[in-house]
Amino acid sequence: MARITLSQLRHSYMANPVDEADWALKQLDLQWDDGGAYALLGPSGCGKTTLLNIISGLLEPSHGRILFNDEDVTHLPPEQRHIAQVFQFPVVYDTMTVYDNLAFPLRNRGVPESEVDKRVTEIAAMTDLTAMLKKRAAGLTADGKQKISLGRGLVRTDVNAILFDEPLTVIDPHLKFQLRSKLKELHQRVSRTMIYVTHDQTEALTFADKVVVMNVGEVVQIGTPEELFDEPQHTFVGHFIGSPGMNVLPCDIDHGQAVFAGQRLETANKAAQASQNSNEIGVRPEHVRFSSTGLDARVVKVSDAGRFNIVEAECGGHSLKVLVKEGAEIPSETAKLEFIPESTRIYQDGWLAGRRSAP
Amino acid sequence: MLELKNIAKRVGAETHIHPTSLEFKPGSFNILLGTTLAGKTTLMQLMAGLEKPTAGEIWFGGVDVTGVAVQKRNVSMVYQQFINYPNMSVYDNIASPLRVGGVDSAEIKRRVGAMAELMRISAMLDRRPSELSGGQQQRTAMARALVKDSDLILLDEPLANLDFKLREELRDELPKLFGTRECVVVYATTEPTEALLFGGVTAALHEGRVADFGPTGDVYRQPATLTGAQVFSEPPINTVKVNKSGDRVSADGNVNWAAPADLPDGDYIVGIRAHHIVPVETPGSVPIDGTIKIAELSGSESMVHFDAFGSDWVSLSHGVHPFDAGAAATLYADMSACFYFTPDGKLVRSGETGGGR
Amino acid sequence: MNKTVNQKAWFLVLPVLLLVAFNAIVPLMTVVNYSVQETFGNNVFFWAGISWFEDVLRSPRFHDALGRQLTFTFTILLIEVPLGVIIALAMPRKGIWVSVCLVLMAMPLLIPWNVVGAMWNIFALPEIGLLGKTLNAIGFDYNYTRQTGDAWFTLILMDVWHWTSLVVLLAYAGLVSIPDAYYQAAKIDGASSWAIFRYIQLPKMKRVLTIAILLRFMDSFNIYTEPSVLTGGGPGNSTTLLSIDLVKIALGQFDLGPAAAMSLIYFLVILLMSWIFYTVMTRDEANQ
Predict the structure, then answer these.
(1) In-domain check, residue B117
(2) What is the ipTM metric for this complex?
(3) pTM of the entire structure?
């Protein structure tokens, strides 16, 4: 078990990267505490798999160091890092029984058979595999196989961290919930460092205590699920987390305040000065409401989502979404909109204006 | 108009579709809602003519088409997997149904161009499907299905394999594409929210039977049966056996609440959707004490699974509400919004408003 | 998935059916016809019943040929299959060398069989052939036209040279289809190279190896051209395999009846052995 430190990490798949876009992974500094549950969340191509491979040792970074506790493991091969991994598609040893699969990592390390038996029995009970120990691994369903993969990581006592690479991809939708709770429960029982990579916000936010949100090779925010929802540090986070995502509307800056559709808006933060590139306000659909005063708007479309309605409105020449609770009244054509000030933020060049520091 | 008259499908000893009658009007958007093995795909294959029903007839536009091969029907289909011709450019992929139909090349160019514009893939027309992202591949497949003037367009979970955000985006665009067409559109999905957002008409399927059929909002808010309500609830609807006597409704003596005035005394099954149970007390709500199993966070909503008097409950609330597994908690149910079903699952009273039947 | 029933599809199968009828079923029936009759020429035939079959099955000559055939087949299988797997394992999986290796491997397979025989015939000649001369030069008394052991050595070497590539290509195809994740998982589990081979590569190669073994078995059991050109069955009868013997009886001595009976027995032996091979090798999968 270990604390994992990533220091000034950069990676490019090209021999001589020139452009900023040539980097699959831009500057990265991170520390993960021992025993924590973390998630790497981002759309495909955001660099999360690259980062995962660097941690597991399948890829050597172009720059920077990786430390497990205080040991530099940057140049160590995977087998010497003591990391376990659960892959997207189940990897089991088909010809072996479930028992032998779980025993495999221990036997390879010359652990005495009595100890092997003790560990395997214990882990099988934890992962609900006890009844299947004598079965061939090839005969199990996808979720059973993923449990074996996980079990092979848990069975060792010398594992520094367990990595999950979109482990629920091939699991039936109605079983996903079960496996998700199982993972969460196991983490609380064994308190090993676990790192979960996914593009699915529900999986990431449910599993992790802290989520690392990535976009185009860059970490845009590290935070608890609440922080990501309540205080997105970047418009990308606001858009990616939550459904529907945050409204991002271009605005002008005047004396540190946002001006949108000709009106000065109260916001949670202030901008020091206008940015040359982009000035935007971000407000979640749940933080916009219809009222008697405010911005002039026109209701374009109302979609019934059951427990709430998603209203598409046009305001100041831009389209935005408003979330209205089921049963609440929706103006038919023209309306006035109000943004809740404490949940409305100014973003400059994508980043939250005046934010304390880089993640 | 597409009419299914008492069609059934058996394969060997297994019944995949029990006798079913449905009518789909031209220009309508129809949704088949159900879980993985509910029979959505089989029903679509029967409509397309890829499979023959073991009983019953299929009529299209007043003509019996039951035995007519799929090639002779004017049908398009989009699948869950992104199916394109791998060695053709995106342009040729979209043009392929028109070329088969003998449309002249100027017309092909015009229609492919317009369709690509609509699908926002104009810049990719010269590329091969393998060079596109998943979302673009599926847009190509959809463009190919929509470019010819089909009488029937079948979409079998077309968004299921896409990333979460892409799904949201396409979900927004899709209904706009069918706006002015006179064809019958049938869309299969496992997700109640998707069905609601598309509106139109919904058939709730369960184990090869239609549990309910009607305008989507009605099927959602006034489900004819408990099964229909279960199919149309995500997360699953909470159910509990109750007895109504006098002015109280009681669930096994564990909790009780004021009975609606118009409900006769007797035994009922109460169904209450997860979003009517929340972690904060609201006026008139019924407190339920339980033990937390897991709190699933979807970003803007929290789904809390908990255990109370021996059964599983789910709560869905807005915002992020983390709970520790194993902790004791009280959640509050708004019982004025619940459904009352007879013990054999027929709707007696719906607490959800809206829906016109 | 179920497809619509359409009887027209049968017409598409018809040409193949006719082709098979003309080049397999009709000749086979002719052979069956010969095998139960006696002839003394002039197209006059007499009913002979199963006497030819009895004769063939009792004849020491047939037993010897069958024995030689089995020895040959099992020897080359024992060499070619492991050797092919070893070469496939040693081949690169990525980069420009892949195509170079594949072309080199495919080369022997492209050479016509009779040319292979002729090549080795000259190559192994003790007086002028590179192999024969070299062996003699470094002190071996090697002469495949006179010494039985040398003839067998040359025959097997030739077959290994010619056909190991087939096993290599099939095994290689099996190997490259294994997803990287398996190797990564094995590394993480601390598996040795032997364990990776035993528990990942071998199980994943099983299907293609089954096909390779079957093909090599049937082909080597049928082999005629190469040994016939190389040794002609000699010295003496020492390398007279079943097929060579068959041709000797049928065309050399023109004993049509016994030759026909023998080919049928031959055919049945191959069929039986292939079936046994196949069931044994796939039984495991059916059990799962």
Answers:
(1) yes
(2) 0.84
(3) 0.78
Q: Is residue C42 part of a domain?
A: no
Q: Which domain holds residue B287?
A: 238-350
A243–B298: do the CB atoms touch at under 8 Å?
A: yes
* Chain A residues inside the 8 Å CB shell of C189: 104-105, 108, 152
Cβ atoms of A211 and A38 closer than 8 Å: yes
How far B179 CA sits from the closest chain A CA (Å)? 13
* Upstream peptide bond of B19 is cis (omega within 30 degrees of 0): no
Domain region containing C75 = 59-287
Query: Which token pair is B212?
Result: 């309910």
Give CATH for domain A247-351.
Answer: 2.40.50.140
Residues C117/C227, Cβ–Cβ less than 8 Å: yes
- Asked if C6's CB is within 8 angstroms of B51's CB, the reply is no
Rounded distance, CA B27 to CA B227, Å? 28
Residue with tokens 């909503």: B301
Single-letter amino acid code for the residue at A169: T
Chain B CB contacts of A327 under 8 Å are 353-354
CB contact under 8 A, A184 and B325: yes
Q: What is the CATH number of the domain that holds B71?
A: 3.40.50.300
Task: Write the CA distances from C7 to A285, C12, C13, integer angstroms.
Answer: 59, 10, 11
- Residue B210 shares a structural domain with residue B277: no
Which architecture, in CATH terms, is A4-230? 3-Layer(aba) Sandwich (3.40)
User: To probe the interface with C, which of B43, B52, B58 has the most C CB atoms within 10 Å?
Assistant: B52
pLDDT tens, residue order, chain B (357 aa): 899 999 999 988 888 999 999 999 988 899 999 987 888 999 999 998 888 899 999 999 888 988 888 878 888 888 888 888 888 999 999 999 888 888 889 999 999 998 888 888 888 899 988 888 878 888 899 889 888 888 899 999 988 877 778 888 888 888 777 777 788 999 999 889 899 999 899 999 999 999 999 999 999 999 999 999 999 998 889 999 999 988 899 987 788 899 988 889 999 999 999 999 999 888 889 999 999 988 888 878 888 999 998 888 999 998 888 788 888 999 999 998 999 999 999 999 998 775 445
Terminal CA-CA length for chain C: 23
Residue of C4, C5, C6 to mutate, testing the B interface (most B Cβ within 10 Å of its Cβ): C4
On chain A, the residues whose CB falls within 8 A of the CB of B316 are 307
The verdict on B169 and B244 lying in the same domain is: no
Whether B357 is covered by a domain: the verdict is no
Q: How many domains does chain B have?
A: 2
